[in-house]
Amino acid sequence: MRAASTALLLAAGLVLAAPAAAQAQAFPARPMKIVLAYAAGGSIDFLARRIGDTLSARLGQPVIVEPRPGANERVASQYLLSQPADGYTMLLVAVPHATNPSLFPDLPYDTRRDFAPLVLLADVSQLVVVPANSEIKSFADLVTRAKARPGQLSFGTPGIATGTHLMMELLNQIAGIEMLHAPFKGLAPLTTAVVGGHTDVGVFSVSPQLLSMVESGRLRALGIPSRQRWSALPNVPTFVEQGYPGAIGGTWFGLLMKAGTPPEIVDKLNREINAIMALPEVRDSMLKVGMTPVGGTAEQFKAHVSQEIDRWGKVIKSRGIKIE
Residue 164 contacts by C-beta under 8 Å, 6 or more apart in sequence? Predict the structure, then answer.
C-alpha cells in the first residue's frame, strides 16, 4: 500500500513538472527583446548587442535591442514591468538600478520585489585621475591637501549620483576629507575639464580612451577602487593597497526580467548567457572596452543587487546626495 502511494505521488509530480519542462524546452518561440536603460551608442549598447547577437544565434530567434533612456533608468524599468512575465523581455541596467530606491522614495515599483535578476554581466573598474601638470602626485598627496583646504579642492564626475560620484563620496568619507563635487553632463565635458585643469580631480569608469590618456601622459592616475590592480595599468595601485580597505566599487551591468517569469525560463537564459560570456571572442571583446566578464547564477545577482541597494543607500543618506 505504501509503495503504491509513493508511486502515485511520483507520477503526480512528473505530471506537474511536464508542462514547465515543455515550456522551457519550447522557449523562445518568437523574437526576444533586450531593453536598454540608456541611449544607443557607448559601452552598454555594445554589450547589449554583443550578448543579443550571440544569444540569437544560439536560440534561433531574433534578439532586438531597444533603447528606452530617461529618468535614471526608471523609464526602462517601468516599461519592463508593463510587459508580460514570460521571458521575452529583458532589461539591461547598471548601478542606478540599486541606487534609485534611496534617491527616489516615491518609486512606482519595489526594486527588490518586482524584478527577477537574471545574470551579472560585467564589472567596470573606475579610476581617480588628475591633470598631468597637477601638483598632486599621489592619493596621499591629495588627502594631505584636501585636509589642509577642506571643501576647496574639486572632483569632477559625469553627473550626480553616477557610480563614479558615489564612489568618490565613499572615498571622501573613508579618507576623512571633504571635496567639492563638480558634476558634468557626460564624459566629453568632464574629460575636457580634467585635462584642462578646470577641476582638480576626475573620476572615470575605465575605458580605452581613458587608458590612452593615462598612457600618453595627459592624465596621472592616483588609484583604482578595486581589490586588485587592473591588468592594463599594472603600476596604478588600488586604494586598498594605499590603506583604504573599504574603498572598493565600480560600475556593473546586469540583465533583469520581470518578477514572476517562470524559473525554468530564467534558468535556461542564465545558462545560455553564462555560456556566451565564456566564449573567448566575447570575453576578449568585452575586455577591450574595459569590461570584466562576471556571470554566475541568478541568485548570486539577486544577492549582489540587494547588497548594492544597502551599501549605496548608506552613502547617499550620509552624504546627503539628491537628484533635483
Answer: 126, 157, 158, 203, 204, 205, 251
Its sign, for the CA torsion 9, 10, 11, 16, is positive
**Residue-by-residue DSSP string for 48-82:** HHHHHHHHHHHHTS-EEEEE---GGGHHHHHHHHT
Torsion, Cα 42 48 53 57, to 10 degrees, reads 160
What amino acid occupies position 147? K
CA 103 → CA 34, 166, 324, distances in Å?
25, 12, 10
Q: How far apart are CA 274 and CA 266, in angstroms?
A: 12
* Of the candidates 142, 217, 132, the residue with the CA atom closest to the CA atom of residue 172: 142
Mean pLDDT of the chain: 92
Closest by CA position to 248, among listed 137, 145, 139, 166: 166
Residues 6+ apart with CB under 8 A from 80: 35, 89, 90, 91, 115, 256, 257, 258
Q: What is the pLDDT of residues 241-286, one digit of tens each?
A: 999 999 988 899 999 999 999 999 999 999 999 999 999 999 999 9
Report the SS3 class of residue 265. helix
CB 88 within 8 A of CB 100: no
State whether residue 26 is helix, strand or coil: helix
